[in-house]
Every structure is written in structure tokens, then in C-alpha cells.
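Example record for the data management plan.
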Amino acid sequence: MELCVMMLLRVYYYPLFFFFGSYGALLVLGEWIPNHFAASPVFSMLGETSYKFAPWLGAGLLLVAVMWALYSSYRLWRWYLGHGDICYECGGITDFKVGKYGAYYKCLACGRNHRDY
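Corresponding structural encoding:
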């Protein structure tokens, strides 16, 4: 794959994860648990509670996904204008991380690590 495509996948990985996680939470908490636990007298209250909680969790995860996608888009816009941190080998956007050996930058396009100076 091209470096730009890999960079976009790495930038928008977590927003997509939370977006599909919100749908999964609605499906599991709103449909699966209430349907499977409705016949049991012991777990019927769990089914009702999960059915009431499912829209709130789905909306919360969707809100996190949208906010994270907006922040990622802002970072890409800053990189496009030349104001963000860039990789000195390929020119891709970098992500600041702290690891075992100290702080470093990880390029989201080529995947290389660079020391923090």
C-alpha cells in the first residue's frame, strides 16, 4: 500500500473502532442480552437493565468516535499545512509516544521510530 493510505488507516483506526463498537454495543446490550435472559427469572432484570443502558452506551461511544475523528482530521490538516511534526525520512505525520527507552516519535506513514530530541 502507499504510504498515504497507511497513514490514513493509522490515523483513523481508533475512531473507526469506536464507531463500530457503538453499533456492537447496541446490538449486544439492546438485542442479544435481553432476548437471551428474558426467560430466566434470575437474569430477567439484567436483560431489562442492559436494554435501558444500550442507547446511552451507544451514543457515548459514537460521541467519542466523532470527537476523535475530528481531532485526527485537525492533526492531518495541520500536517498538510506544514505545521505538525513530520517524519524526516518520508514526510508523514508522526505520533508522540513514551516507551521503555524514553520518548520517541512514530511515523504513521512508514512506521519508523525517531528519537525525541
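Summary line stored alongside the record: The chain has two domains: 3-84, 85-117.
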